[in-house]
Structure formats: C-alpha cells, structure tokens
Design goal:
Distance between the termini: 43 Å
Radius of gyration: 19 Å
Number of domains: 1
Mean pLDDT: 94
CATH architecture: 3-Layer(aba) Sandwich
Largest sheet: 4 strands, parallel
Strand content: 5-15%
Number of helices: 12
CATH topology: Rossmann fold
Helix content: 40-55%
CATH superfamily: HUPs
Shape: globular
Low-confidence stretches: none
CATH class: Alpha Beta
Number of strands: 4
C-alpha cells in the first residue's frame, strides 16, 4: 500500500459549510459579539480570517497584526492586503518594546543559545495577551489559527498561539488548509508561502519540523487516521522509519499541550460525571 495525496482530499464546499456552521454556533452560544484573530500573512491565519468573515460578516471580525523588527515586510503587506480585501478592521501592534521590557526585567543573556526558545515563547505569549485585550474590550472570542499538522506534533506555544477560545481549522492538515485557502480565493503567494511563526530572526517552520509538510501530512494521516503501524507508514510514504518514529515521539512528548492541566479530582467529581 502506498499513501498519496489522494487520502488528504476534501470536499471544499461541504467542508466550508461545516466550518461556517461551527463558527456561527460557537459565537452564538458564547454570547460573543464577534471574533478577533492574529493576522500574520500566512496561510493559516488568512484562511481563518476568510472563514470568519463568511460566517459572521466583516463587521464582526477584527484582525490584529503583531510584527517585530524582523518580521518580513512582505508578510505585513500580505496581511494588510488580505484584510483590505475582506473589508475587516485592523489593529497593528509592534511587539518589540513589550518583548524588550520582558527580556530586560528577566536579565536575559542573549549570548546563551538556550535562551532563544524561551524568548520566542515570550513573544508568542505577548501576542496572546494582546488578542485577549481586544477580545475583552469588544466582547469577542479569540479565533485560533492552528492546523492539525502543527497540533499533532505540538508545534505551537502553550498559552501563546495555543491560547485561544476556539479553533476553526484545527481538524485540517496543512496540505488541506493550503488547498481550501486557494479554493476560497486566498492569493497563491499566501496559500503556498513557506510557514514561519516569526518568533526569532530567520525563523522557519521547516527548520523545526521533522520533514516537509507534504510528507508530514501523509505520515500523520497514516498514523492517526488509518491507525497504521510506524513500519507500515514508513513503507507507504517512502520515508525512513526514524522520521516516522520522530513524528510519533513529538506527538507523545507534547501531549500536555493538547490537554487540560492534570489535577486531582475532588471526591464529588467522579460521582457527578
């Protein structure tokens, strides 16, 4: 058996309607007035923005750009152009000064290579705080922009981009996100742009994920949708077994990111459940 991109095919119209209904239901049930989301110029946030506008109308969607001094200019331009096309309101907050205040108070040693990821996570959590400021201000919900590929391998910051109220596209693999985005009119340069969280200078997703998204999505589909053994997935996707095992290791290692914090149940909890 060989796994090909055919396993990732979705019905664009059916999937779009399912997501729109989900967004409307979540917002209505919460009593929220609308949604706010971070715009990065990448495909995940762009697709989420398009879907939120289709579900709720442009007047109920707020986009927030949160660049740094190393954010590529084209990413900012792409985000602003998309927002203009959608007709949504936009706030832009450069997070450099906020980040520097944290680094200064924490006496961060920038020469220490171990400090790079903690600094990157601070930037992600600052962005979460900013989104919740606007959400609280307007009685909005924070819409997450994470996809399933990144979720399953834990490629997100806990209480950073992982800190949201709901996730409209977290059931879609990156490959599916790109194709649905293109179907819904997201410009090709955004839909197929290399992913980058931009949490430190030169940050690229491909530097940190085990294999490119095209192969990663097939591996994940084999492991989690078809329930295949790692050895079977390795042969079916034609990748080394060690790559499949690394993907599985990341899933297990980051399980805590996808769950509520562990707690001791009160004596009455189990009786009432």
């Amino acid at each position: 058996m060989k796994l090909t991109r055919d396993i990732l095919k979705i019905d664009f119209e059916e999937e779009t309607e399912r997501i729109l209904e989900f967004i409307r239901r979540v917002v209505e049930n919460s009593g929220a007035s609308g949604v706010v989301l971070g715009l990065s110029g990448g495909v995940d946030s762009s697709l989420t923005a398009v879907l939120c506008v289709k579900a709720l109308g442009r007047e109920r969607v707020l986009g927030v750009l949160m660049p740094t001094n190393f954010t590529p200019r084209e990413d900012v331009e792409d985000a602003l152009e998309l927002a203009e096309t959608l007709g949504i309101r936009v706030e832009t907050v450069n997070i450099d000064e906020i980040s520097e205040a944290f680094f200064k108070c924490l006496k961060v040693d920038r020469s220490d290579p171990k400090a790079r990821i903690p600094m990157a996570n601070i930037r992600a959590r600052i962005r979460m705080i900013i989104l919740y400021y606007y959400a609280n201000l307007r009685n909005y919900l924070v819409a997450g922009t994470r996809d399933r590929s990144e979720s399953l391998i834990g490629y997100f910051t806990k209480y950073g981009d992982g800190g949201v109220d709901f996730m409209p596209i977290c059931h879609l693999y990156k490959t599916q996100v790109r194709e649905l985005a293109r179907h819904l009119g997201v410009p090709e340069r955004i839909a197929y742009k290399p992913s980058s969280p931009q949490l430190y200078p030169g940050h690229k997703a491909t530097d940190e994920i085990p294999i490119d998204y095209g192969k990663l999505d097939l591996i994940l589909a084999g492991l989690f949708d078809l329930k295949m053994e790692p050895e079977e997935v390795s042969k079916a996707v034609e990748v080394p077994l060690k790559v499949v095992e690394e993907v599985l290791h990341r899933f297990r290692k980051t399980m805590h990111k996808r769950m509520l914090p562990p707690r001791i149940e009160a004596s009455g909890d189990s009786a009432s459940s």
